[in-house]
Every structure is written in C-alpha cells, then in structure tokens.
Amino acid sequence: MITVYGDEKSGNCYKVKLTLRLLNQAYRWRDIDIMAGETKTATFLKKSPQGKLPIIELDDGRVLAESNAIIGYLAEGSGLIPTDEFDKALMYQWLFFEQYTHEPCIAVARFIRLYQNMPIERQAEYDLLHVKGRQVLRLLDEQLANKAFILGEQFSLADIALFAYTHVAHEGGFDITPFENIRQWLSKVEQQPGFVGMQD
SS3 for 43-111, per residue? Predict the structure, then answer.
C-alpha cells in the first residue's frame, strides 16, 4: 500500500489525496507538520533530501516527490490522463502552468496569510502576488469559457492540480466572485465520484 507523507492544509498534498480517492486506491496518510520543522528531521530527509512535501513511499521503499509527478504516476492508465497524444500534451501544459504560474501566486499568498499570519515584512510581496494572482485567475477563467473542464469535456489531472489551490484562493485573500467560469468549474469538480475535501 502506498504511504503518503503530507500536510493536510497543503494544496500540493491535497492533489495526491484527491487523485487517490478519485481512483479509489487504498493508501496510508502520514501527517507532517512543516511549521514544526518535521520536514527537516534526519528521518524525513532520508526519504526526501529536499525536505519537501508531498512524497509517496511504495511498499518496496522507493520514494517519489513533486506533486504533479506523483499524480501522474498514480493516474497512469486511468481516465484522468487523455489517450489522445495532443490532449495529453495539453494536460501537461496546464500542469506546468499550475506549478510555474498559478501556484507561485495563489499558493504563496495563501501561505503568507494562513501559515505566517501576514508578517509585515512580507506585505509588499503579498500585494504584488495579488496583482499577479488576479491575472492568473483571469487566464484560468478564460480557459474555462464554454468548457466543463480545463481540457473541455474530459475531467483530467489538469483539473485536480488547478482545483487544489484555486478552491482555497479566498484563504489567500483572493475574491473569485467575478470569475463565473471558475466558480462553475469548482462545483463540477466537487461533483466527481469519489471527491473528498482538503481536510476530510
């Protein structure tokens, strides 16, 4: 059975949990408190030398890190990955967008506000993240125009990855009320069989 090491408030860790639940795969969850320094212990660093979450550990001891690599491994051969080569490439395009454009704004603003309680020395950074984050949300909203999901009618890993931090964007101070397409899409994701909330 796969063991997941994660933080239940982390969107990156939630991607892994949600993927496993949607695939109806059994797993063990080991909660790791990053704010208490548990990712910096010698025991954890043996498994994850970068000290990052999430990671999964297989029964044979192999360990895989990076949330989008993990969900790609878990979903291989399932309906969460398109069989059409171009559609699969589009899915990866949006996975890269999530990690390099979306997450650095939406997730970091949330971390500053939720985990760090808005330290004054990060206020200017937080304000800039909001400017960039609104642009990112606008791009996502435009992509979802006249579509059920990111790729169109097929629910995929792209939806899981982008849902993880978008659905808690308000915890980073973002208002998604103006983004009707995003709001409708969030509801559709929550209706998927096997869906589970971030801290459920």
Answer: HHHHHCCCCCCCEEECCCCCEEECHHHHHHHHHCCCCCCCCCHHHHHHHHHHHHHHHHHHHHHHHHHHH
**Which value, in Å, is the radius of gyration of the alpha carbons in the chain?**
17
- Tell me the pLDDT tens digit for each residue of 79-119: 999 999 999 999 999 999 999 999 999 999 999 999 999 99
> What is the helix (H) or strand (E) element at residue 32, kind and residue range?
none
- Round to whole Å and give the CA distance between 189 and 192: 6
pTM above 0.85, yes or no: yes
For residue 27, the cross-strand partners are 2
**Sign of the CA dihedral with 106 first, then 111, 113, and 114 last:** positive
User: Can you name the residues that pair with 84 across neighbouring β-strands?
Assistant: none
Q: Given this model, what pLDDT does residue 134 score?
A: 97
Domains contained in the chain, CATH given: 2-75 (3.40.30.10), 85-190 (1.20.1050.10)
- DSSP letters, 6-26, are E-TT-HHHHHHHHHHHHTT--
Q: In what order do the strands lie in the sheet with 55-57?
A: 27-31, 2-6, 55-57, 63-65
CA gap 81, 14 in Å, rounded: 18
